[in-house]
Amino acid sequence: MDLTHIRQIARELRGTVIELTHEAKPAHLASALSCIDILAVLYWSVLRIDPAKPLAEDRDRFILSKGHAALALYSVLAKRGFCSDETLRTFNNNGGKLAEHPGPQCIPGVEAATGSLGHGLPIGNGLALAARLAGRDNRTFVLLSDGECNEGSVWEAAMFAGKQKLDNLCAIVDFNKWQATGRSQEILALDPLPEKWQAFGWETVRLDGHDLGVLHAALTELPRRSGKPLAIIADTVKGKGVSFMEDDNNWHYRVPTREETDAAKRELGLVH
Known about the structure:
With 272 residues, the protein is α/β, with parallel strands linked by helices.
């Protein structure tokens, strides 16, 4: 794995997300930025996928359960070759393929409709169980938000995976500590989050969600020797990568001005 290469990709992806947010005016910029490093490691060093064969039966599956960060996923898929830059530029346009929340196969590589939170992990359960029953060794990765862990369906799915010992399934929680209207810990009793997943029968790892090397090491070790599904609690920063957006929940809904967009791209080293 070339960490320098993936780090540069992550910077470019952040620049794309910020620019398209300025142009198309959607919400959820900071939520997209917090998960960019996770997506970069998955798509450039972990997932067994081929943009030329997006529906290959033996492909790994990725489900963006926090569908409000769809712009991050679209930007990754365009850069990875699943769709063109021209298609990406239609994001949030009336009549276009790329809505603020993704639809199934709206472009190749989008596996499921998400946006209403709490549905990605149940879908991941089905994909992982189906792979086992079919005798295939492909893996399923599901990215959730920490606020999404408020949903009861997440824990119902977690119990199912633990009972079935779906060791080909990995749930990654983008733990940026914020929800739309406040700190996650202030909304519901999320703590102790890793221990909750363990209690539901998962092997659990807590790590720095912006450390590319640590992410790669954890994500590539699937299935685990324990025979359990894997939950990764990834500590992240909402708005990561731009100093005036980091850990500022106003950017959950705010759209950057032209000046702010240019300043962010300069900070990312994308313009001089």
